[in-house]
Amino acid sequence: MAYTQDELKQQVAKAAVEYVKEGIIGVGTGSTANFFIEELAKVKHKIEGAVASSEATAQRLRAHGIEVFDLNNIDGMDIYVDGADEITEHLHMLKGGGGALTREKIVAAVARQFICICDETKYVPTLGKFPLPVEVLPMARSYVARELVKLGGQPALRNFTTDNGNVIIDVHGLNITDPVAMEAKINQIVGVVTNGLFAARPANVLLLATADGVKTYKK
Ligand SMILES: O=C(CO)[C@H](O)[C@H](O)COP(=O)(O)O
């Protein structure tokens, strides 16, 4: 049976709710994460609340009556649930299509398990067809763009301001043969806040919605 992309996102969001037991849940940003919020709202009696990876997600959680905690006021969390723009069999991800990559990486770092929820269009052999988002301090944008060219990319400034008041440079055409090394190299450029490669800390679980049902991959 053929499903629409939204139906696949909904199926994978439902599957992710099986991982929700108690306590505080880390919640990502984007259309797939939004489907997860809908499902989380149905089991909100089980949890204390959530930590949001963006202002948009925080608003949506509150609208569903889910309390949003400041990350600085909690000890930790069991799971962080979020989508991705691309993910490989190694559970390395490319994220940040929605511009929330820095807060996403911070919340993910605190969580014991990263549960990535995707439809099968996101499952790729190698990362980099989707332009890599890099969050940059505004005064450093030209310098960082020149450094990204030296790494083989074609930078394009996005018309967007992040929740942190910074800009996003989308890098096209990067040859990402070693995602862990590329993530570190870009983060070393002065003025970069972070980049959308989630490879040093890959997902722990991938729930992938396919035409044959939701498949689970674990690291
Ligand atoms: O990284 C993200 C936002 O910064 C999202 O997880 C990513 O862009 C996927 O979004 P969607 O679920 O809408 O396809």
TrEMBL record:
Transmembrane segments: none
Superkingdom: Bacteria
Residues annotated as catalytic: E104 (proton acceptor)
GO annotation (BP), single: pentose-phosphate shunt, non-oxidative branch
Pfam family, one: Rib_5-P_isom_A
This enzyme's EC code(s): 5.3.1.6
A GO cellular component annotation in the UniProt record: cytosol
Residues engaged in binding substrate: T29, G30, S31, T32, D82, G83, A84, D85, K95, G96, G97, G98, K122
SUPFAM superfamilies per record: D-ribose-5-phosphate isomerase (RpiA), lid domain, NagB/RpiA/CoA transferase-like
Assigned keywords, A-Z: Isomerase
UniProt GO MF annotations: ribose-5-phosphate isomerase activity
EC class of the enzyme, as a word: isomerase
Catalysed reactions, as listed in the record: aldehydo-D-ribose 5-phosphate = D-ribulose 5-phosphate
Signal peptide range in chain numbering: none
Family indicated by similarity: Belongs to the ribose 5-phosphate isomerase family.
NCBIfam families (alphabetical): PRK00702.1, rpiA
Described function: Catalyzes the reversible conversion of ribose-5-phosphate to ribulose 5-phosphate.
Protein name: Ribose-5-phosphate isomerase A
Organism: Methylotenera versatilis (strain 301)
Organism phylogeny: Bacteria, Pseudomonadati, Pseudomonadota, Betaproteobacteria, Nitrosomonadales
